[in-house]
Specification:
tRNAHis_GuaTrfase_Thg1_sf, 6 helices, magnesium ion binding, alpha+beta, tRNAHis_GuaTrfase_Thg1, tRNAHis guanylyltransferase catalytic domain-containing protein, three-stranded antiparallel β-sheet, binds magnesium ion, GTP binding, binds adenosine-5'-triphosphate, 3 strands, 2 domains, 180 residues
Length: 180
């Protein structure tokens, strides 16, 4: 990043806003429990509605509203909770795809720790509660990795799309294509 500032690559920063959710729009963030069908079986949830689990989810949602003043409203059902953020919120600089990046940054740290001899459990413990900047710092000081320099495909993923190509064809007066 330092190299990029005031260099001919400065213009790259303009592209960062591409990922931004438009201003003056309310944002909905929905979180759905992963593999809760199995999770609820393993923890003997009362079926189909375990009240304790629902109350725990509700308590978590209350904590979210206390922690993030920009959340205006939350709605939960089953293993999911949706949070509505005020249209003025600048949370995560209104980035739409911050989560993909966060995941890969976590995984990069996690596997570096494991490759350096920690068990998966120890690595998980070490990373618990860390912020993005902590992980950046850990990667740099412990492993000499500048996260910003990792391939974009790792950090942001890949896109596949169809593009228009221009092709000139010759037609006769009746509109039939002429062979080259
Ligand atoms: P995925 O990882 O794709 O989200 P999933 O297993 O979490 O899959 P969902 O479609 O999200 O499946 O459905 C959540 C499941 O979790 C429900 O079908 C139900 O079996 C279970 N579940 C969630 N909350 C409760 C609850 N309070 N009491 C009982 N079961 C629950
Ligand atoms: P689910 O069945 O709910 O999708 P999952 O085990 O597939 O669960 P995901 O959350 O989808 O888990 O994450 C995919 C996981 O697969 C990553 O966490 C990573 O461990 C692994 N993975 C995917 N692609 C690669 C890759 N190119 N190189 C190394 N590991 C990868
Ligand atoms: Mg689920
Ligand atoms: Mg998967
Ligand atoms: Mg669900
Ligand atoms: Mg996946």
């Amino acid at each position: 990043l330092l190299e990029m500032a005031n260099s001919k690559y400065e213009y790259v920063k303009k592209f960062e806003v591409e990922d931004k959710l438009p201003p003056c729009n309310w944002v909905i963030l929905r979180i759905d429990g992963c593999h809760f069908h199995r999770f609820s079986a393993v923890h003997d949830f009362e079926k189909p509605n375990d009240v304790n689990a629902l109350m725990l989810m509700n308590s978590c949602a209350v904590a979210m509203l206390e922690h993030f003043p920009d959340i205006a409203f939350a709605y939960g059902v089953s293993d999911e909770y949706s949070f509505i953020w005020k249209e003025t919120s600048q949370f995560y600089q209104r980035r739409a795809s911050a989560l993909g990046h966060i995941n890969n940054q976590y995984n990069t740290c996690f596997w570096k720790l494991v490759q350096s001899g920690k068990s998966e459990k120890e690595a998980q413990e070490l990373l618990k509660g860390t912020l993005a900047k902590d992980k950046n710092e850990m990667l740099f000081t412990q492993f000499g990795i500048n996260y910003d320099k990792l391939p974009a495909m790792f950090k942001k993923g890949s896109c596949v799309y169809k593009d228009h190509v221009e092709e000139t064809v010759k037609i006769d007066e009746a509109g039939n294509q002429l062979k080259e």
